Every structure is written in structure tokens, then in C-alpha cells.
Amino acid sequence: MSTDLRPDPDLAARAERTTPLMSLDPDALLGAAHRHVRRRTAARVAGGALAVAAVAVVGAQLAADRTTEPDPAQPPTQVARPLGDGAVVEVADGLLAANRPGAKHAPDPRIDPLVDGATWQVDLGLTTDDHELVLGVGPVVDGMQQGAAYYSRVTASGTSDGYGGGVWTWGTPSVEDGVRLVAPLDSGEWSELVVVPTTMRDPHVLLWSTAGFEASGGSRVAVELPTFAAPDGQLLAAALGDPAVADSIQSGESGVVFVGSDGRVVQAPCADLPTPQCPTIDDVPGLAAAVAAVTSAPTAETAATTKLAEGVHATTSLARSSGDGWDAGLRITGSWADEGESGVVVLAPATEVELGTARDAFDVPATDGVRVRVSGLDGVSAFTWADDDSADRFPAQKYYPGSLRWDMNDDVRLLAGAVPRWLPNGRVVLWLPRGVVGNDGERVHALDVPTFADPTGSGSHLYAISLDEGVAMRDVTALRDALVLYLGEGTTADEVAEGSGRCTALDPACLEAQPDGGAALVAALAERGVDVADVTLGAGVTPPAGPSTAASVGEGITAATAWSDDERLDLGDVEGRRVWLELADGAGDVLLPTLYLDTTLPQTQPRQLDLTSMDGTVAPLAPDVRAFVEIGAAPQDGAWRAFTWSVMGNARGDLPVELPTVWHGDRAMYAYVATDASGHFDTLSTNVWVSPGGDVLVPGCEGISEEECEQTGGTPGIFADVRAALG
What we know:
The chain is mostly beta strands.
């Protein structure tokens, strides 16, 4: 009976997943990253009919192996570990690795060196001159299966050749500790092919060299090679080094170490068998630390999170890697996900290309980094930092690339980053200027955020926070929605760090942007031990004073009648507190409203107002007040009239209420606040526009008849009511 070489179906599905990635701020950080991947070329290599060059094949003794007791080729504990989302990834300067190979395909017999013939072939994406690295796997015979990989080509005349790889047999003792096949190529390049031990749990592959590998941030003794799965599930790694890498590796000693997620460490046999003289891990300076960084990675089956406040969650520990990264335990809901589903926040090591891109983009060193994605969304981003980062490197107004923020539509949805290295025992505080309902039911602004060890082994501590829709709506200044502050032990105000840099050292402009001049923020920091004695508060906002300019237009409804300072609208008083708006111009035909209740910012804010749409934007006033604010703009320039209509008002015979309008350029606008007395609560209501020519337009009914509009919208009688109100 032959051994089943196929992996567990569930794990195979996990290994094959290539979930779309998300776009994160800063926008340009990774857009150019993948353009840095270089394809190596080399001098042409002559050859005849599949002439295989000599290579260093470790432990691939095919004839002897066929008579031995087979090992399982793929236990159900192995998942490929790609690095990033490209087919090929640069893991060090001049060293490319196969990352996400192409699909399996029928074999080309002209480039098939297997004794029993290949069942499948896979193009691995690495090329030298006109030769491409091709993997072939044979059939299962008595529980064993041959594999081979060579840089192969077929010429126009039909001849073929190949070099720089090797042949091995899964299911034999020779692959129990893994196989490393290496070869200097005639082009001057260096070929690495690694057969991963089939008995290790989720193995990492570390390629080391005493000469080191150059990467952004300096030289390192070891680099991790991504692993990929053969058609039947077995794991491999493959890399191609340019001539400089080839010279470097051959100038000293090199090898491969496999590190399992269960802590098991295995060195691949050395190339000088049968009397290997491999240096131990401790004999190679820096290699033990590289291995320790891998063994310190998370091992829990599931991540752990904590609820900081209503709609705010943070990671306390990560799940062990699934191959694509570490599940942070956070879930992001959105319209892209199916009902009942949400996007999974996943962290993974930043690639060398991403580190280099961050260094170029922000003009600071970047030696460590973590990439972030949310399943179901396109794109990916990373936050990066350097071990020697200092406060001097990131003064006030200087962006700290170790912080990452993701906005979706009008909301801040994800915050993640690394505690700055110059704050070794640093704390992370999330400041929400508009507040949020705390776990005790009280309104809070400052939340202490837990941190966890960097799974890449840098020694830094990270944080990850998810925010539900509406918790922290994006502010036009980006200073009144969500701020992540970093505090050290005994920190003074001028030592406080903040990701964007705009609130670092409690910059006066940051405090001035707070509605209370920063008083609540400074008080919260003082409670956490920050010396704020020398801090000068900002002036804060001042609501419209004196009698309100708003007009009462119906029971429970007051509306703006005039601009103040060209950007303020006074909506009148509700329960003794002034309701007012600031409206700033956004990009294109968009207004960005900010709602105030006296000097406080309600947590829920009106969303941006599209001046090309009839749809208004609505926001509740406060959790303890049954009132809402609505803002709208006419669909075109001109003397349009605005009305508000409700099902309840229609049922009791009330005509729609006409709203006063104010001008934004040549566009008519309205803004009003409606309390419980208006009858607009617990019922359907809508704004209605009447054109200068008398046409009645209801949002959402463009292009359909009035009868269909009333039927589909649940607004019977709306057109007749508005015309009656017009007189």
C-alpha cells in the first residue's frame, strides 16, 4: 500500500489561499515596492539535449533510497510561508526567491529528467538568461515520489538543456532532515534549491552565510526564504543570487536551518557528505539570534483580543502563522464582505523591498517592519522602524513610519504600529477627541492600548486596534478623530510622541485643533504620569454667541438662515445647548461638515456632503438627546427650494415643512436640527427639492415615475403633499 502524499484538504486550502490585500495610508508607500523586484539575466549557456550540469546534491541517493522504509511526505501540519504577494520576492540585495509559483501544468517531456517521468510541472518564476526554473514531480511509487528542479529551456530547433538544480525522492530518510542543493551557474549566479523536511511543523527556512547578506539597514547573517507547495503538498524553497551574492556565499561558509513552529530546529546536511563538517548554530555569529527570533513567534491556535470600549478592540496576542501571516484576532466589517462575514486583520513580515521603499519614501532607516492586510480588500501596507530610532530623528511634525492608519470611506477603521525604540517601556494611548462609550457605560476619550511582542523577533512591541464604523469618523484636520500617543516612563510633555508627528511634543497646533484647546487631552496624560507643567493650552472653539440666527420652521425643527464667518451655520438651541456646524471645502464637489454641541464634538458626525447629489447627510445629536441634524445641497445651481417630508406627518395631515436655504457659491443648501417633537423620529422622512421650474425631485427616484417612486420608496402622497405646500 502506498503512502498518501497529499496534505490534509483543509490545510491545503489554507496554503493555497491568496487573499486580496488592502490599501492603507500612506498611499504611496507600497505602490512602488513591487516595481523594485529585479529579474536577473546572465550570459547564454550552451547545451544540447537536456544536458544537466553538475550540482551539489545532498542526500539524493535515488537507487538506495528506493529500498528504504518511506516517511510520510507531507504530514498535515505544514503550510507554505510566502513573503508578500508577488510570484518572486527579493529577500536580500541581489537574492531573489520563488514565492507564489504558477499553477501546475502537464509536463514537457523535453525538459523532464525524472526516471519515471513527471506527472506535473510548475514554473517557479526564477530565470537566468533564457532558462527558467521548472519543478517536476513524478508519480507515487511504493510510498515514494521523485522531484526535480532545473533551469531549463527548449530552443527553437527543439533541443533542450538544463542546469543548476537537482533530483530528490520524498518518502526516504534522505529528506528527513531536508535537502539543500546548491550550484554556481556558468552565468556567475548562484542557485539555491531547498527540499523542506516533511516531518516539521510549519517550518521556516533560514539561509545563512558567514559573509552575510546585504539588505536595507545593513548586513545580516541569515535571511528567510519563502516556502511554496509542490502539487502534492510538499514544501520547497528556491532562490537565485546575482554574481555578487554568488561570490559572497562562496567566500565563506553557508547553510540552511529549518525552524518549526513547535520550536524544533534542524540543520540541513552539509555539502561535504559523507563526512560533514557543518558549523553548529552557535558557531556562526548571529545565527543563534536569528533562530531565536523565529522560535519566539506566536504558537497559539487563536489570537486574543480585548474590548477597550464600545466598538474598539485591540490585540493582546497573535495566533500562530497560517503561512500568509499571523491572525491578529481583529475583524473589520464593511460592504465588501458577505452578510455575517468580516475581513480578517493579518500581520506578516515586511519584505526587503518594502523596507527599502519605506526608507526611500520617508528618508529614514528601516531595518524592521510588519505588513498589514485585511482579507477581502485589495492592497497591502506596512509600518517600518529601525533599531536605532531616536526622538531626535522624529521631532514634532515628522511622520513616524512605525505607525499605520487605515481609513475606509469616512471612518478610521484600523490603527497599528510599533512602540518607538527610544521608549523601551513605552505605553500606547488611543485618544478619541469625540469620545466613545466606555466599558462601564460612561463616555471616555483616552484608552490604554495593550501591546504584544513583535512576531518577527525584532524585540519591539506592537499594537493593533480595530474601530467599528462610526466610532471615529474621519476629521478634515485628522487631529480630531483618532490619535495614537506614545509615552515613556517619566515622560515630560515635550517627550510625548504621536504617529503623524503633528501632536508630538504636544505641539501647540495640535492642542489648538482640539475643541477645548487640549484641556482634556493634557489632563488624561497627566493622569498617566506625564509632566505637563509647562504646557500652554489652545484657545479652543467658541460657539455662536447671543440670540440664535436659526429659524423655527415647524414644531421641533429649527434651521440655519445665514452663514457666520463663511463656514459656520447656527442651528439653534437644544436642551439649552447651542447646535452648530463648521463646513470646510473638501476635494472636488464635497463639503466636510463638523458638528458641535456647544464646545463638544458629538461622537457621530455628519458624513461628507456630495454637492452633485440630492442625498443629504444625517447625524444623531447625542446619545442622551433625541434629536438629529441633517444637511443637504440642491442638485444644481439656482434658486431651488427645500422641503422635509415624513410618513408620520403625512398620516396626520401635515404638509411638508419648507426649509430656509443658504448659499454656497451658486448652490442652495439647507441645514436643520429636528427634535423628538418634530415627529421625524421612528418614522420614514426625506428631503425633497423643487427646481426653479417647479419640478419636484425626491432623492433616489431619479429616472422613474412618481407612482413608482412612491411605491418603491414607501412614500405615498409625497408628490401631492409637496405641491400642496407650494400653493
